[in-house]
Design brief:
Immunoglobulin-like, 370 residues, single chain, alpha+beta, C8orf32 fold, elongated, 4-stranded antiparallel sheet
Length: 370
């Protein structure tokens, strides 16, 4: 048996010209499962499995079974090759953004097959990867009965854990949407910041590949548009190079020095990332600086955010009506209205009024109803 394993490793090394023995040795007693998977996988899919083994976290090398790796790799290739956009998805994008079975440290679920069966019919008429991703973001959370909530059991929930709890934070929601996208052949990756520039907290969201990267908030669709969301103002002021105030996208490639700053587990630095702060600064740099984003919140007597109509009026017959956000929205996700600097306005909720002068974006208009 030992001779067989050694012979297989030598043959594999000769085929790919890479020293995979080091990674197999890191697996310890689980080495047999990895070698078995490499031996059993089809020739067409072997490159992907080898790619995973040389990039997966050490804990996964020591624990993931042959069956798990074979199934994940086979389904990932099936989703990619059968996608109507197969020719538009480069192999390097597939390897880093469809093939991986996880994003960060979340529990290793086995949902790819179930998700493919469940979500593939939803995107059957989609004409692009972007449209398909938007359809999923608009539909899967209601279908799975998962909502945003700060009362979720933990931040880094796997898809199965979020479905069981019926709730998730922005991190769990992003992991869930990425898993859904990958199951149907849409390249997707986890993105986030450890802290916004104004120290208002962390946030996580999703980027999908469609001839370039495009972002969307998980369970925060802006109709069917990408590259939009409540957080664009904050994202546009990210600080490149700062692990606290920068924006990072997870990658499984080993050529990047950055670790992904996980706010929920800051001591763990084994997951790699790109610093994508420049993208958000540049893409959003055309925001009109003469207009200031003003935030509005409405609370009930118990301090819970409520969805209520807010009417805003001001100079030059300005009139706006919109709904405040409730507890099913991110803590930092408020009704935001862009108003001209230096002007005075009036906001009304039911019979409550607030008059205010627009100075800067730190202005937060709160209503507390009985």
């Amino acid at each position: 048996m030992v001779k067989y394993f050694l012979s297989f490793i030598i043959i594999f090394h000769c085929i790919y010209g890479n020293n995979i023995e080091n990674y197999l040795n890191l697996a310890g007693n689980n080495q047999y499962q990895l070698i078995k998977a490499l031996n059993q996988i089809s020739t067409d899919n072997r490159k992907g499995l080898s790619w995973l083994i040389k990039r997966m976290p050490s804990d996964d090398l020591k624990t993931l079974s042959c069956e798990y790796l074979l199934k994940n790799t086979s389904l990932a290739y099936e989703a990619w090759r059968n996608s109507p956009w197969f020719k538009n998805i480069p192999e390097n994008i597939f390897l880093d953004n469809i093939l991986p079975y996880a994003n960060l440290n979340e529990r290793r679920d086995n949902r790819r097959e179930d998700f493919r069966k469940m979500f593939l019919p939803l995107i059957s008429d989609a004409e692009s990867l972007s449209e398909a991703a938007a359809i999923l973001n608009n539909s899967i959370f209601e279908k799975l009965n998962v909502v945003y909530s700060t009362k979720r059991p933990k931040a880094d929930q796997s898809p199965g854990e979020s479905i069981k709890a019926g709730m998730a934070s922005c991190t769990g929601l992003s992991i869930l949407l990425i898993s859904a996208c990958r199951s149907v052949g849409i390249p997707a990756r986890f993105v986030g910041t450890s802290n916004w520039y104004d120290k208002s907290g962390n946030h996580s969201w999703v980027e999908i590949w469609d001839d370039g990267w495009h972002f969307t908030g998980a369970a925060e669709p802006t109709e069917f548009r990408l590259n939009d969301g409540w957080f664009i103002e904050k994202a546009s002021k990210a600080q490149k190079g700062s692990l606290e105030y920068g924006i990072f996208a997870v990658t499984w490639n080993k050529v990047f020095d950055n670790h992904f700053p996980m706010d929920w587990l800051p001591s763990l630095k084994s997951y790699r990332s790109y610093d994508v702060s420049d993208y958000y600064i540049q893409v959003l740099s055309d925001i009109d600086s003469s207009l200031v984003p003003i935030s509005f919140r409405v609370f009930d007597s118990e301090g819970q955010r409520k969805s209520k109509e807010i009417t805003i009026s001001g100079p030059d017959n300005f009139l706006f009506r919109g709904l405040s956000k409730n507890e099913e929205n991110d803590t930092n996700d408020h009704l935001i209205v862009r108003l001209p600097r230096g002007k005075m306005f009036k906001a009304v909720v039911d019979s409550e009024e607030r008059q205010f002068t627009v100075i800067d974006e730190s202005l937060l208009i709160d209503f507390k109803l009985d």
